[in-house]
Amino acid sequence: MFPYHHYCLDLTNVDYPNRLEKAITQIIKDDFTERFCISLVDRSVRSGNVHVFVHKMEGTDLKEIMKVIPLSYVLHSYFMLHEVFGRAVTETEKKTGRPSSWVTILDLKGLNLSDFLNPLSSPVQLARLVVKVWSEYFSDNMCKLLIVNPPGIVSLMFKISKFIMDSRTANQLAFLSDVSELHNYLEPQAIPVEYGGTWRDDSGYAKPPESCTRPLQPVTSSDYRGVSRGLDFPV
Questions:
Q1: Domain spans of the chain?
Q2: 121: exposed, middle or buried (C-beta count within 10 Å: 0-12, 13-18, 19+)?
Q3: pLDDT of 110-133, one tens digit each?
């Protein structure tokens, strides 16, 4: 069963903000990084005043993930992720006195486009909800989504994007024909080595460090919700 974590914190504790952030970070680490290929939220990685986050879709089977993780849990972790983004933005703006934001590098290499052609499919529903959370609550936090390695024809990607987002949000997308174009938006220290920059994650999280992300944990039938460990039938 997919672990869902609850953290009870004493709101009167003077260290509450720090404890809350640690709890949020733990939720993301426990409930998100196993099934999604993402970078750590590292506040030190910036291009000017812009923080950078990496999300890769290669190997991500959303249909299988939905069998393991309830949609509500995914959205919960996504809310928490943006909460951390917002806190980083506030901290950076306070330190520098200048506006700050986040940019996400979304690598679509290996994405199965057929999963998104049906507007009623689970992947499309998930994408719609994720985009809704972003556009309605956190659009000021994340100013740009830089899409690299888009599969197939870029025009088809634009058509698919119309299924899952409004026009204002779609304008925040940038489809890059080559990863070298990341340099048009970001400084080298905020671009992973894998994409031609100098950013490495040597914390032990990323494998390899040059990717700034970690490999996905494959989904097996024993991971499905409702399947008892050691038994071959649902309970």
A1: 25-211
A2: middle
A3: 877 777 777 777 777 777 777 777
The gap from C-alpha 161 to its chain's centroid, in whole angstroms, comes to 17
The string over 124-160, giving b where at least 16 C-beta atoms fall within 10 Å of a residue's C-beta and e elsewhere, is bbbbebebebbbeebeebbebbbbbbbeeeeeebeeb
Return the SS3 of 167: helix
Q: Residue 226's CB: how many other CB atoms inside 10 A?
A: 9
Nearest to 175 by CA among 156, 200, 147: 147
Q: Which two tokens stand for residue 60?
A: 């991500």
DSSP state of 199: B
Dist. CA 95–CA 97, nearest whole Å: 6
The distance between the two most distant Cα atoms of the chain, rounded to a whole number of Å, is 58
Instruction: Tell if the pTM clears 0.85, that is, is over it.
Output: no
CATH of 25-211, one of 3.40.50.150, 3.40.50.300, 3.40.525.10, 3.40.50.11810: 3.40.525.10
Q: What is the pLDDT of residues 76-103, one digit of tens each?
A: 777 878 888 888 999 999 999 999 999 9
What is the C-alpha to C-alpha distance for residues 156 and 144, in angstroms, rounded to an integer? 20
Report cis status (omega within 30 of 0) of the bond before 208. Answer: yes
In this predicted structure, what is the pLDDT of residue 231? 35
CB atoms within 10 A of CB 52: 26
Residue 182 burial by CB count (10 A; 0-12/13-18/19+): exposed, middle or buried?
A: buried
Backbone angles phi and psi of 97, in degrees to 5: 75, 15
CB-based contacts of 225, cutoff 8 Å, min separation 6:
1, 2, 67, 68, 70
